[in-house]
Amino acid sequence: MQVLxxxxxxxxxxxxxxxxxLSTLRTGRASASLVENIKVDYWGTPTPIxxxxxxxxxxxxxxxxxxxxxxxxxxxxxAIHEANIGLNPNNDGEVIRINVPxxxxxxxxxxxxxxxxFADDAKVAIRNVRRDANDExxxxxxxxxxxxxxxxxxxxxxxxxxxxxxxxxxxxAASKEKDIMSQ
Length: 183
Fold this sequence. Notes:
The protein is of the alpha+beta class. It is 60% helix and 15% strand. It starts with a helix and ends with a helix.
């Protein structure tokens, strides 16, 4: 049924957003995603760092950004400082190196709270999709497109799908939390 397929697609998008959000949390390991949302002023246009330079991870705790144009070094360095993400860029005139320190115990607990917050947001989004799907099914029943028995059966299917997706959110969040706390 189309309503179920639409609901599943929207729930999957919520989970993908959760994964993207979690990838921006700094866990002590270098990752290009740490700087992908930082924008640099490139000819008057705010442009993400990966669009103005090559971001590589030569070591587990180091990022290297090699701008496509040398004059951008200072702009990239300034953008990273202004982003206030707790990273200190080192400009050597050719590339920008960023050492990613292991987070303190206090910072790890704070990050774990952020994981829970992102997971809660994803669960709310999934429950909103469930509500929308159930509303759509009720409209179909009112317009006699489906019977009351079909309505109950389809609502049960929507609930099962919701439960499955919320378990998936919990698993993603638990994995990220474990990753953060094991540093």
